[in-house]
Specification:
Layout lengths: L23 E5 L9 H14 L3 H17 L11 E5 L6 H4 L4 H4 L11 H15 L11
Parallel strand pairs: 1-2
């Protein structure tokens, strides 16, 4: 079972894939906004004039926020787990990783950046096998 969702599509927000229905999100590309729209151009001008925020800085921040929202569909509770695959070399760059939320960034290990497909599949298989084992709730895991 699976689904395909566009990061900037109408169904990219508001859908929960809980339990076993959504264990992996693969994000192809960086979801930048369409920059030729009049509304976005006005917003970019305002941000530059009022706050000194450059177009590139705003667009990168917005794209990383959208990416985090998209991959966050996998994790819906404290006991949930899933794979988040950022399948674009640009996510390996420091300027992109720094704009991801802390709950994602702290799990991005440098050794898991720029992997071959075979290595990524092997790591994913190992992770899913480990996470599928029975989980015992203790006072430390609540």
């Amino acid at each position: 079972r699976g689904a395909f969702i566009s990061a900037r599509g109408k169904v990219s927000e508001g859908i929960d894939f809980d339990r076993h229905y959504g264990k992996c999100v693969v994000l192809f590309g960086v979801p930048f906004q369409y920059t030729l729209g009049k509304v976005l151009k006005a917003r970019l001008d305002f941000m530059r004039e009022k706050y000194g925020i450059s177009e590139a800085m705003f667009l990168t921040f917005d794209a990383m926020r959208q990416a985090a929202q998209c991959v966050g569909r996998v994790i819906r509770s404290k006991t949930d787990y899933g794979l988040m695959v950022f399948a674009d070399y640009r996510y390996g760059r420091k300027d992109k990783r720094e704009k991801l939320p802390p709950w994602i960034a702290r799990h991005l290990e440098q050794g898991n950046v720029h992997l071959s497909t075979d290595t990524a599949v092997s790591i994913a298989r190992q992770f899913l096998k480990q996470m599928s084992q029975p989980f015992t709730v203790t006072k430390h895991t609540r």
